[in-house]
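> @MW can you paste both from yesterday?
MW: sure, first one:
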Amino acid sequence: MDKTEALFVEVGQQMLTRNDWVTPWWNGEHFFDYPVWGYWMVALSFRLFGLSPWAARLPVAVAASAVVVAVFALILHWGGKREPRWERWGRAAAAAGVLATSPGWIGWGRTSTTDMFLSSAISLALLSFLLAHHEAPRSRLAALGRMGLAIFCAVAVLAKGPVGVVLPVLVVTAFLVLTGQWRSWMHPFRLTAMAALFLGVCMPWYAEATRLNGAAFLWGFLGFSNLQRFTQVIYDHPGPPWFYLPWVLILLLPWSLFLPGAILRLRFWRWSRWRTGGQPSSPASTTGLFLLLWLAIPLAFFSAAATKLPGYILPIVPAGALLVSLAFWPLPGRSASAELQARTSDGWQRGAAGVEVILLALMAVAAALAPRWVATDPAHPTFAAALAGSGLPLVLAVLLALTSAFLGLALLRTREGRWVWLINVSGFLAILALVVAPLAPVIDRERLWPIRQLARQARDLARAEEPLWVVGTKRYSVLFYGGETAAFVSGRESLEDRLQEDPTSLQLGPTSQTARLFGDRRHLEALDWPASSVRRLARLGQQELWRVRLPNATRQDPL
């Protein structure tokens, strides 16, 4: 846990410690980069299960799992009443399995940041719309879908701001206009009830945060974190317009190999076939268009933004997963032309599976050689040996090779690509269980344990008005594990300038005589602090904790 995740989790910890459930705090200052939903979830988890990385990541894991369960339930609900039970359950399992084994959903589902809270809320909102849209307007399921759409849009707004409602509204509006079904949603009472529910969920916190913090909140959140993030590059995260295209491939791998074929089988350029004349449509007839819009609109929206990060397009992962799974196992009720398109797309599936066989074989070789690559990290020189000693790279290589072999065998023995999903899901679930889960303790022991221990020692050895400076890499986890504030110093020149021009930014008090320095040994030594004014307090691996006498110290206290 470090960097962005540690920053996010520390805000949740401060919310619990201060018992302030309205104003986010980080490092002793207000923190208005994101709204409050994720912090609430992390703080609640800490209250129930105690302070730990496991408790910090539990809420995002629950959020990611909720979408997987919702996908399974919706696809199962849409199964044909006359279909065999195995057909209905198999289709639902394929949809849930593709999403559950997508790297983007796995990775962000194990990382406590705002991206999964936003993505899961948007996904649940759009799935709720699909449920309501394909039910009789006065049915209980339609009412449940409308309620879910309003509530989860509100949760998305509480998770990251206006984008949480803008994206679902854009997707839904485009879909209703293209299909000509917008009149079915123009019911004044239902729209008013949905708007009231949406505002009732999200507006109380925004109103209270504005009342307590005024212009600082409005500018810090709406101005900086929303408008400026979209129109200007902040935090040094630029990117070209095509920045996200490789990330679509990575976040959905290996399923992204099947995505072009899944999209082409929709024949989306024939817009007339989507028009229903305002009449109700079956899930099989228009869901593909909805999923395509769900994939394309957020991708275009974030591609237009100046600031770009891979996690921004996480909301498209469920759409991509559903497009692929429904290409493998389509919904019942298709027309004869759709059957022809499905047979045509089988060639795409087989071609993509052939590419995947080669890719997985190459990945198996790369996994076996992984310890050699990580050996070049000077900050963690023992990590490569620990990784090799765990045997996990070889286990990963074997699982990837077996998955590749079974895929190749399936392609040789059958012309139907329908069951490719089962081989992939089985292989990647095995990787999750046998590699990803055991890898976490190895990473913790080699990369995070020294930081955690030294942060606690720094807290225990602190003197009155003695600041803590984190030098070099911005290890935000020091705040979480140490339970104190810190100043972050990039290097020698930055430190000298701040000592002379802005000592308060270094958290120096009127009587400060010494400071504690935390960082990699190479970063600390690069400060070139006089040896007579330095004492090494602790060292674990390449991480060290120093105490230094300040240049303007008025006393010569022992270090």
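MW: second:
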Amino acid sequence: MKLSFEEIKRKLLLGENVNLECKEAESTIPKSVYESYSAFANTSGGDIVLGVKENKKETNPEKRFIIQGISNPTKQIEDFWNTLNGNKVNANILIDDDVYTVSADGVVLIIIHVPRASYNLKPVYIGENPYKGTFKRNNEGDYHATEHEVRAMIRDQNPNGNDSAILEHYNMDDIDITTLSSYRQMFKVTNPEHVWNSYDDKEFLRMLGGYAKDRMTGVEGLTVAGLLMFGKGLPIREKFDNILMDYRDESGLSGDMRWSDRLTYDGTWENNLFNFFTIVARKLTSDLKKPFRLENETRIDDTAVHKAVREGFVNLIIHSDYMMDAGVLKVIKKEDGFEFTNPGVLKLPKEEIYLGGNSKARNPKMQTMLRMVGFGDNAGSGFPAILKAWSNNGWVTPELVENTVLNQVCLSLTFEKAAIKNGDKKTAIKNGEKKTAKKSEVHIKNIIEFLSTVGEASTAEIAEKIGLKPSRTREILSTLDDVEAIGSNKDRKYILKSK
């Protein structure tokens, strides 16, 4: 969706951010445009507005950004395309409609919309050296990507994922037999007639993708998936000393307690991923409600919520980047829900993940290992299953937050009830949500004031202004009779209704 002149003016009141960059460019294309192009492509996309001067000493947004316009838009656009299609950058990810002009009262601006680059095209960089010419974006502007960030982008290009690489000199001696036996027992219960049940441990692992041989070189050994899922703690820490596993129960705390239960490496357990998953999954679901239900005269204790929580945990494991310079697989149980944080940014845009039907796990072998014993849905259906379970219980939509600076993703699942239609305060109080109702009143007031100032804004812009997560902001917006949504889901904005 193209921006209008008025929309740009309203955005400037919010200032530059991770998705908006302004440049003066009165008569020529600034060289820094290509840095912003690289940064937006490698982060989450954004718009470059040419024809706006910034006074960095001015703190008032209305005075900080001065719309000056472009004197020769046709020539600048032609120069931009010629440069982009030359050897200035390694990839042109734009289409014709991504570069356009808007005008008002004789003032012309050039807009360059840069989409988020597909994972198989990153890094998008300037010049010939990705380690020198790759940029990323934060709220402060463009910055040089670190070597580790560039390596992560290059790793993610691999269509086979990151966990099938053979680890030379790591063999069956590095497998924790107790862990593997536990997995095999679970596999046998789930797949009683499967031929793999008759194989020895090495062949069984080979079939799962946990052990492999390079036919070209003759090198064989455990794969990344095999060692991390079933390995002994010591060889895992030797090979992956950059990765930590951490579970904390932060529910039911009193006084100055920071957690009531914790699982991290302490020498009492073999810290492989399968152990971490099975131990922690039980802790996460132990307090969830289990309504009485019989199936074929057998009580079924599993619910859609149980499965959704485990699915969130599975996603953490299969989407983690275990090759990063540092990272923590963090699982937190809170009074009002759960948080799953994994190292590595999203490979797909959030919109595609919420929609489902497509999956690009960094660790497809691990995904198979977990799916074969009943954990994790078919490719692309897991996240929609989480959304459905939470929606059916009337809870706030699960929030997937990507931090492209820390290079991590956090999934928040909360038991907070979704906002009540028409702001029914009496019902909220009746449900024991008096505090929530009062907080919502403050947020509603701030939303109305903000929209009165800027005219229209997206969920993300409103959320940033009032200090809430986009999911919670979206829930509140849906209750407001004085606010209406315009545009499609992807480009939806909110405005005040005409009196």
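> thanks! Residues 421-496 form a domain with the Arc Repressor Mutant, subunit A fold (CATH 1.10.10.10).
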